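[09:14] KT: can someone run the structure on this one? pasting the chain below
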Amino acid sequence: MTTVSNMVSLGNVFDIALQRHNAKDIAFNEDNPETAEIVRQNPLAYLDCRLAGNLVVATATATADLHVGMALIESFELRIDGKDVIFSCPGFMLQKFSQVHTRSAPLATAPALTAGTNAFEYAWRIPIDLGNYFSLLDASANHSLIAKVQWGAPEDGWTAGGGGTIDVSSVVLEIDAVGVVGVGRGMPGGVEYGYARHQVMSREQIITAAESNLIVELLKKHVYSRVMLWTISDAALVDTILNKISVRIGNTIMQTIERDMLQVENMMRYALSACWTGVYVFDFAEPGRLEQMLALTGTQRFELVVDVAHPGTTDKLYILEDTFIQPTKAA
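[09:31] RB: done, structure tokens below
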């Protein structure tokens, strides 16, 4: 028998590790807000979310609307101390946003539409840390970290067949908070100084006419990683609204890309099996290249210039801004 006397010590291998906590499940409450407290004892890296339940179809076959089960989530927010919103977007954006960050299509199992009780299940990740502990969320010194869901209604995702009805049952949103154990308040920062703040916000723009110079003002003092766009015409995702998009600082156009080329670029960057229809990702940086992210702190204009058409009766442009706020040293 061989005796190993000089085995390498594993002393500090597990000093830094992931730790997963399940938040209180959020049960469906039609057209009402509900909340869950997120564990704050360790700096937070990401949230894993799962929405599951049943579509109950009576008599006639139902039809699926644009966002199907994800339309049950009218909006999702993360709030620090009840008022500081660091993440806010409609439910229909969550899975595409997750896929952009994980480079993997999330679980999406839509229910059958025939009469009966038909199960559905959707999953996604909400990233907080960009990587290398750049933007961990250290909320240990705060009073609360809350996930807030504004629930919609079954009719937001499905339409009942003639003479029939629809409802949902046993719908619940599960949230796991994944934190990092062993990163101190100075590694590289924490409640005092160091971590950047990852902030994700959305907005809606109604398009009333074709416009080659539609201006979307960007936030100064935010570091921009990417902007995602959804174009919806008469309740359908379409490629007939967006023509091209540019970034302008002051009077200088820094980047311009046509829609078709943007779709091709998105396919290559995110390993998509096919171009997304009506969903686009405009990246300010290559993956992991923090120095390429764009920010403006002066008085110059900082804006997107969007060339759009108006093909339908009701045309909308939805914008998701994926940004970071640089840490500032304590006085």
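[09:33] KT: thanks! The CA atoms of residues 30 and 153 lie 5 Å apart.
[09:34] RB: yep, looked fine to me
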